[in-house]
Amino acid sequence: MSPDAYRRLFTLIGRDWLWTSRLMLDDDALAAVLRNPDVALYTVRADSGTLGMMELDLTDRAVPQISFFGLTPDATGRGIGAWLMAHVQAMLFDGGAQAIRLNTCTLDSPHALRFYLGAGFEAERREVRVFPDPRALGLLDAAEAPHVPRI
Predict the structure, then answer these.
(1) Are the beta carbons of 10 and 125 closer than 8 angstroms?
(2) CA 24 to CA 32: how far, in whole Å?
(3) 46 beta partners
(4) Is residue 13 part of a domain?
(5) Are 117 and 135 in contact (CB under 8 A)?
(6) Mean predicted confidence (pLDDT) in 36-61
(7) CATH number of the domain encompassing residue 44
(8) Taking residues 123-135, what's their average pLDDT?
(9) Per the structure, how many domains does the chain have?
(10) pLDDT band at 108 (very low <50, low <70, confident <90, very high)
């Protein structure tokens, strides 16, 4: 996937949750991530277009990490996320993974934590991270994520 196509999908899926980390990378840096043999990107597609994505960090094959998991707004609530998560978990465990890690945050969908716990993940810790508001940086439109106050 090209950096531009990735950014469009990343923004479509993550704009309501203020996903920004990949938007802050220039083309060369993002292309390097996408070409990295330890990064795997899976998308779910239908005739109407791409419905979701999962990006994996396979640096530690015994304990891979789900870097990004999300669905487009029109794909949520249709069972696609549960199917994608189950498919990737089976693939990783069949490939020798002993555990799978992922991180979520309070900016994520209010259903995310319940979804991940229901998929068999366990909460391990909490931490505080502070980052600039991507709307103030111009990475996302000022009208995005209206449920998140601008501070």
Answers:
(1) no
(2) 14
(3) 49
(4) yes
(5) no
(6) 94
(7) 3.40.630.30
(8) 82
(9) 1
(10) confident
